[in-house]
Write a structure and sequence with these properties.
The complex is a heterodimer of chains A (109) and B (117). Chain A is an all-beta fold and 109 residues long. Chain A has strands at residues 4-7, 10-14, 19-25, 32-38, 44-51, 56-59, 62-67, 72-77, 86-93, 97-99, 103-108. The N and C termini of chain A lie far apart (41 Å). Chain B is built from no helices and eleven strands. Chain B has strands at 4-7, 10-13, 19-25, 32-38, 45-51, 57-58, 67-73, 76-81, 90-97, 106-108, 112-116. The chains are: A mainly beta (109), B mainly beta (117). The interface between A and B is medium-sized, with 22 and 22 residues.
Chain lengths: 109, 117
Amino acid sequence: KQEVTQIPAALSVPEGENLVLNCSFTDSAIYNLQWFRQDPGKGLTSLLLIQSSQREQTSGRLNASLDKSSGRSTLYIAASQPGDSATYLCAVRGQNFVFGPGTRLSVLP
Amino acid sequence: GAVVSQHPSRVICKSGTSVKIECRSLDFQATTMFWYRQFPKQSLMLMATSNEGSKATYEQGVEKDKFLINHASLTLSTLTVTSAHPEDSSFYICSARRAGGPTGELFFGEGSRLTVL
C-alpha cells in the first residue's frame, strides 16, 4: 500500500527566502507525481506534474524534482512571497492516487 | 486551461436529508472522475473512482449506499450523500482526468463544504 509523507508539517519563513518542501513515497511504481497548493477552505490548484520518466519540472519560481528510485520529490520555491502562504500537497499516481498530509507554509511580510 | 466546476460550494442541511453535489468538466471530456473527502486539518482521502457509463469503484471503508455516485456523461459526475448525519460534515472535492491513460494530469474542483446539523 502506497504511503506518502511530507516534511515539514509546517513552515514559517520571512519573505524573500528560498525554501524546499519534501515529499516521500514508499512504492516507487508510480506513473506521475503532482504538487498542489490548497488555500484555506478552497479546492486544489495544480502546480506541477512530473511524469515518472522525468526528473524535474519548472514553473516560474517553482521547481519540482523527482527521484523515483529513492521515493522522493522536492518542491523548491524561490524568493518566497506572502501570497505563497498555503498548504502544499504532493500526490502520487500509481494504482491509486494518494495524497500526502501537506506542508502548511506561512510566508511573513 | 482545464476547468472543473463543483456545485454547490457550500451546503447546510438537516440530519436525515440527502444532498447532491455536482462536478462538471467545463472544457474537456472526463472519462474518469474522482471524489475525495477532507476532514479538518487532514489530507484528502479518495472515496471513489467514477468512470463514465459504469458503476463507481469505492475505496475500502466508504459506504456505497450512503455515497451514491453517478457519472452519466463525459462532463458530469454527481455525489449524493444520502441520509446525511453530522459526521458526514466535511469538505468534498472532485477531480477529473483530462488525458487518456493513467499518466493524465488531474484537475480539481473548488470543493463543496457540507455541514449537517
